[in-house]
Amino acid sequence: MGIRARLGAVVAAVGTVMLAAAPASAGADTIERTCDGRVTRYDAYSSRTLAYTQKTGTSCDGHAWVRVKTSGGWTNWVHNEKKATIKNSTGNYKASEHKGCADCKVYILYP
Prior knowledge:
Blueprint: H1 3-21, E1 26-35, E2 38-47, E3 50-55, E4 64-70, E5 73-74, E6 78-80, E7 83-87, E8 95-99, E9 107-109
Antiparallel strand pairs: 1-2, 2-3, 3-7, 4-5, 4-6, 4-8, 8-9
């Protein structure tokens, strides 16, 4: 087998491995709020089985908020001072909503 053929086979094998190792579909975003001139960051994540909003700053008083959409509609909001999480093993999440306080702008993610 020539060098080109061997190189092509290696590239094809690596590509196959990379595709097989790719994670399940997920969405992520960063939400920022400014309070008293300082920025508080919230990391938002959404997959078919997990959604969370995590507060990574401290200048704003608002909690991290999240809810998910399933075939039955939107769940109730879950919130926590630092990280709000909703997870299950059935993989039926269609979307998630994230925010940094009860009355803040809502951000939507799709897995």
